[in-house]
Amino acid sequence: MSDYRIQGATGEWEVVIGLEVHAQVTSNAKLFSGAATAFGAEPNTQVSLVDAAMPGMLPVPNRECIRQAVRTGMAIDAQINKWSRFDRKNYFYADLPQGYQISQLYHPLVGEGAIDISLDEKNPDASGKRIGVERIHVEQDAGKLMHDQHPTRSYVDLNRSGVALMEIVSKPDMASPAEAGAYLRKLRSILRYVGSCDGNMEEGSMRADVNVSVRKPGDPLGTRTETKNVNSVRFVMAVVEQEARRQVDVLEEGGRIVQETRLYDPDRNETRSMRSKEDAHDYRYFPDPDLLPLELDDAFLAECRASLPELPDTKRARYQALGITPYGAAVLTAEVENARWFDTLLDAGAKPVAAANWVTSELFGALNRLGKGLDESPVGPTQAAELLGLVADGTLSGTLAKQVFEVMLETGQGAGAIVEERGLKQTSDTGAIEKVIADVMAANPNQLEQYRGGKEALFGFFVGQTMKAMGGKANPAVVNELLKKALS
């Protein structure tokens, strides 16, 4: 149970949240036509006769779109309905040439499932919650109206018309902005692992309709509003916070909440009314007469299941079993690119714990500094494995490894070549180290006297001076061992 509450003049209020996420299916074409779906194409260059609703044009389902939706359902342990049906949702809008949208109301492709979320980034195992998913149905997207191209006219771009969407409908199980954000992040991660949606919210290929209502603790559900087409996790959390606050203010002033569709204005950080919310019967749904029901056979379902990759939660558990901390495992599995990069690093022979620590601190820190993503990293996983191997076998100390890594970032050279070329190999030669220790002790008689007089904290001083004298190339473990002997 979430402890998130809104403090009002009449007491505390709870917020109840459900999300309807529209995820564009990764496929070779649109849901019912062969038209392309590339982002950023010139307006009206990706429109087939079916998308434009020319007379006599009949829709044909794209098998890949159905397959991707089924795989997504399997990834959240949802019920897959072997029999499903398309319905017509009737409404007139300028960017919907047919005058109806082909969707699934009564018999969706995917039934109930669930997504596990965590609210504690440092310890993902500590505070989990299961969010129910009511259904996933497939439907076609509408086109896009452009109001800023002409002073008195609106233009229509039909490139998106007919693009395949999965509508993933959660149950109203979320009770705070943080839970809504965690759910959307986790869902996006799963979709990207499965490969059924690229999750690019800024390009509109994943967007959320945010349903919010408020109530006094223990009361029945309140009237909800739906804020449409929210395109970032941060904005979804802001919508929950602002809309819940607005509803509380309305109710406490004696008003009532109207079931309506709203829009979010990120510049003003507020929601505003768009239109009264229609109910399902207002759309006059009926089975689409141009499309036969979908019937999935066991072989198709088996192929879908066999094609699923290792999913985020399973991968995180595997990493933790290798000794990686829960936080490290969560960071490495949050994005599919991170996990694939790290798996390649392990396959190249890197030790799991050392590799995880290096990736999450050194590599991510360097890329952040350079303003680059992991896909742009000048150092690949096999190069990183070579560097970590030189640390593991004692060739490089941690300090020297940092120096070598910086050169790798600048030049793209391999770690071994840099070590040879620049003479950066760590020395464990006891004779050479003992000579430097003797010189350091001779040069610092006062500190030597104080140390032998009981000031043991000066041990670090002697380690530092020895390492400095050897240009950071001495093996720290050998230095410590020889210094203890020399100073005693």
Task: Give an overview of the whole structure.
This protein is α+β, with helices and mostly antiparallel strands. It folds into three domains: 6-300, no CATH class; 310-422, no CATH class; 430-487, Arc Repressor Mutant, subunit A (Orthogonal Bundle), CATH 1.10.10. Helix content is 39%, strand content 19%. The protein contains 15 helices and 16 strands. The strands form four sheets. Strands 1, 2, 6, 7, 10, 11, 12, 13 and 14 form a nine-stranded mixed β-sheet that branches. β1 and β2 (11-24) form a beta hairpin. α6 (326-334) packs across α7 and α12 (430-443) crosses α14. The chain is elongated, with a radius of gyration of 30 Å. The mean pLDDT is 92.
Characteristics:
elongated; 3 domains; nine-stranded mixed beta sheet; three-stranded antiparallel beta sheet; 15 helices; 39% helix; 488 residues; Arc Repressor Mutant, subunit A; 16 strands; alpha+beta
List the helices and strands and how they pair.
Blueprint: E1 6-8, E2 11-24, H1 63-75, E3 83-84, E4 87-90, E5 100-103, E6 113-118, E7 128-140, E8 144-146, E9 155-157, E10 164-170, H2 177-194, E11 206-215, E12 225-230, H3 233-252, E13 260-265, E14 270-276, E15 286-287, E16 294-295, H4 298-306, H5 312-321, H6 326-334, H7 336-347, H8 352-370, H9 381-392, H10 398-411, H11 415-422, H12 430-443, H13 445-452, H14 459-469, H15 476-487
Parallel strand pairs: 12-13
Antiparallel strand pairs: 1-2, 2-10, 2-11, 3-16, 4-5, 4-15, 6-7, 7-10, 8-9, 11-12, 13-14
